[in-house]
Amino acid sequence: MRETTEAIVRAITGSVAAPRSLLLGRYDDHGRLQYTGRTVNLARTASSTLAGLLAPARPGHPWTGWSFSAGWGSRETLNVTLVEPELVMEAGFDIARDASGRWRHPARWHRARLDLSPADVPRLESPPR
After folding, report:
1. Of 23, 24, 73, 127, which is most buried with the most CB atoms under 10 A?
2. Can you give the pTM of this predicted structure?
3. Residue 74 clears pLDDT 70, i.e. is over it
4. What is the rounded CA–CA span in Å between residue 36 and residue 106?
5. How far is CA 80 from CA 9, 16, 22, 113, 116, in A?
6. How far lies 67's CA from each of 11, 23, 70, 85, 96, in Å?
7. pLDDT band at residue 8, thresholds of 50, 70 and 90?
8. Cβ partners under 8 Å of residue 109, min gap 6
9. How far apart are alpha carbons 42 and 60 in whole angstroms?
10. Which band of pLDDT confidence, cut at 50, 70 and 90, is reported for residue 62?
11. What is the mean pLDDT of residues 90-103?
């Protein structure tokens, strides 16, 4: 099963001028921006659209120093570029989540949600225990 929902773009693979995939986040109940998952590789048209909407992160980005796995169970890390937390996107996810509430499988980018701010994105939910 899949659902469509919003997330905040916080980092990318590739460059700001040509993003390849997006690393996504949501705020938890304590106001901390948590990693929730990433997208599959973007189509060229999506990458071009997003390039004009992303800005490199300023100092103090909450994910500075973090590393991200290249895949489920992989020890390989992604080379990421942090971006400003201004862009909200709509994406399709399957409903499988890990114990932290992160999406286990990559999302599919649908569209930028320029009508929403990061404060409008649903909070990170932990799955029932």
Report:
1. 24
2. 0.85
3. no
4. 10
5. 12, 10, 9, 22, 24
6. 11, 11, 10, 17, 22
7. very high
8. 22, 39, 40, 42, 46, 50, 89, 91
9. 27
10. confident
11. 75
Residue for token pair 């919003």: 6
Tens of pLDDT, residue by residue over 32-48, are 888 888 899 999 999 99
The total of other beta-carbon atoms located within 10 Å of residue 88's CB is 20
Q: Are 108 and 1 in contact (CB under 8 A)?
A: no
In the chain, helix, strand, coil percent, each to 5? 10, 40, 50
Other C-beta atoms closer than 10 Å to the C-beta of 80 total: 19
- pLDDT for position 71: 66
Structure tokens at 40: 């599959």
